[in-house]
Amino acid sequence: MEHSTAILEDAGKLIDKTANTANMEANSSSAPNEQNGSRGQKRKGDFKQHGRHAQKHGSRGRDHGRGGGGERDGDNKRHKKGDMGRGEYFASNPDKRAKTQSAGKRKDEGGENQYGQTFSKDEIAAEERRPKRKVAVFIGYSGTGYKGMQISTSERTIEGDLFAAFVKAGAISKANADDPKKAGLVRCARTDKGVHAAGNMISLKLIVEDEDIVEKINEALDPQIKVWGIERTIGSFSCYQAVDSRWYEYLIPSYSFLPPHPSSWLAKQLDLLADGAGDQEAYNARQEEVKGYWEGIDDTTIKQVLDEIDEDIRWEVVKALQGEEEASAKVVEADVEGDEGKGDDEDPNVERKVSKVKKVDATEAKQPDAEDMKGIPAAMVDSVISLTPATTEPADASTAVSDAAATDPARVPDPEAALDATIITTTDVEPEAISTQPAPTQTPEQSRLLRLRLATRKLRAAYNTAKRQYRIPARRIERIQQGLNHFLGTKNYHNYTVQKPYRDPSAKRNIKSFLVNKTPILIGDSADDAEKSEWLSLKVHGQSFMMHQIRKMIGMVVLLIRCGADIDKTMSHSFTDAKYSIPKLPGLGLMLERPVFDTYNKLHAAKHEREPLLFSKYEDKIEAFKRTDIYGKMFAEEEQKGEFGRFFQHVDNFKEPIFLWLSSKGLEATKGRGRAEGYGEVKAIQAGLKP
After folding, report:
1. What are phi and psi of 337, to 5 degrees?
2. Separation between Cα atoms, residue 546 and residue 540, nearest integer Å
3. Biased-composition ranges for Basic residues (predicted)?
4. What is the predicted pLDDT for the residue at 25?
5. Hey, which of 63, 199, 322, 625 would disulfide with 594, CB 3.0 to 4.6 Å?
6. Which residues 6+ apart lie within 8 Å of 2 measured at CB?
7. How many other C-beta atoms are found inside a 10 Å radius of the C-beta of residue 124?
8. 25-34, 394-403, 636-645, range with greatest mean pLDDT
9. What is the pLDDT of residue 388?
């Protein structure tokens, strides 16, 4: 017993000795830190703390900083990237040296554009020194082909071209030509890639002694960028800080307000849920002015086009544009064996609304001739097709939808694009190289696929022509204004932007005016107004806007109207803490109309004898520019790419309940049916959402 007690005492002494040694080492290692300052600061990257509540170097900690706690739960949780302190940053081990060397290498090899120009010392010394003045520059531009109104050393931007034009026109000296900061360049409003601006402003110091300085600058600019005028301001003026509010305009084709095609997944769910909620009568009343529109188009224009398509590819063409169910309703693929599917035909209780068609051999089917090619751009016609014999069925585009696409329908693959990408590989050729007869090396199956693509584009063109001829009724325009009125005043727009919780104070914004022009704009190259496309102009006036806010605001109103939803109920609910997945409309139609400087004009301009900053001075020039360089390019891009048509097709055929808040059941229809719950085709049928 005594021996065991002695062993335990020796072990305890050894533990105490080890602990004392560790404490001495810790104290000796902390001594240099105590000598560095009275606050005991640590070196960067020396982080020994552990545990759940260990404070990272550079963070405020749990009991420090504004608002009390450092940890937040629920909707009030801050964005993770915004809370990254020095500890997390250095823990990620960023290789700054490699990044700097890589940037220098690109610059030396000429792979990076310089934001500004560098002149030699002799050129700078030889230039006459002239005084600079603080000015406001009124500008307008078409954003097509530019990466926005911003600073970039590697991309073509509006600011980059403007600064280069100032240097070329002599408005900026050669000594200051290498860096815009030397001229104090400040933008009033930043615009994203492809976004237009009829009126925007930059403030900086320029040499404006020449009376024709505006003309010189415009001569050095690309025609799609214009300088409307230059006004002297007070020395402390900053257009970014002085702006009171901004006007934006959004142009949208009127056919965007057409209801979803009856064959689309969304249209079927809307009708099914309206019936289930006992709202069928009210739902039909909200769609009264467009009732039977698509059925009329299908019975006339579309039926005629389908009749001209070869029978062996007709089913696949309809499937590519409208889905498999609609294809089965319009035409059925012939059976190879001839005896499949007899059960349905023999059952007298099954009503058959479709007819069997004869399977046409690819070698006997009509080949695309000059008449088929007529009106189709050369880039759309394939003369060389590479395809393995095993790839014969077009892939279902719905299987390619990713989780990320659920929040951004613009990323959902288009059925026709999926068809092109999965079954056809093309090679661009010159127009004169296109042959109306199949190439000698083409197999019968390859020839069939060529006809399939041409027929698909022909059917899509028929739908586009029908939409272009649509003219929106006055009653539908009144419903648009009814929806826009809900945005007036100060509201919480956490549902209309990204990464903003409901409790974030910055989610509240003030909208002063939101109007739709009751007189639509007709845009097109044809002399006949009936062939032109009808567009609506929506103008919003607000103090400031968050990311994607305008596109989501208009997207909400458009979706509510085209889906026959209850506008007042849904709009009011969207400003609460409820979460809505609102897709943002294409940026194609967005345009900065003009910024407003009322406070500066009333207080400073009059006091210091400066001209007020008003875009109304250049109203005639701006309107002419909008007609030719902005509206025209919007229409051309929509005609070429079909941005709006593809966007709504993605929404209408997105086979997940994420957008079913547009139905008569509202947000309740989306609860418990997301991807996280494993919602899919089987559960859709069980829940009664899939007819």
Report:
1. -80, -25
2. 13
3. 50-59
4. 53
5. 199
6. none
7. 15
8. 636-645
9. 31
CATH fold match for the domains 113-242+597-641 and 254-291+473-593+642-687: yes
Residue pLDDT, tens place only, 13-40: 666 665 565 555 555 544 444 444 444 4
CA distance 593 to 631: 13
List the catalytic residues: 192
Give the H or E element holding residue 592.
strand 590-596
- pLDDT one-digit tens code per residue, 566-592: 999 999 999 999 999 999 999 889 999
Name the pLDDT band for 187 (thresholds 50, 70, 90). Answer: very high
For the whole prediction, is pTM greater than 0.90? no
Calculate mean pLDDT across residues 514-526. Answer: 90
CA dihedral 431, 437, 438, 444 (to 10 degrees): 150
Query: Could you tell me which of 235, 654, 575 has the C-alpha nearest to residue 410?
Result: 654
What count of residues does the chain have?
A: 691
Question: What architecture does CATH give domain 254-291+473-593+642-687?
Answer: 2-Layer Sandwich (3.30)
Calpha distance 493→473 (Å, rounded): 30
Query: DSSP code of 217?
Result: H
Question: What pLDDT score was predicted for residue 527?
Answer: 79
Structural domain boundaries of the chain? 113-242+597-641, 254-291+473-593+642-687, 293-468
Backbone angles phi, psi at 379, to 5 degrees: -65, -20
Return the ∠ at Cα 89 (arms to 87 and 95), rounded to 5°: 130
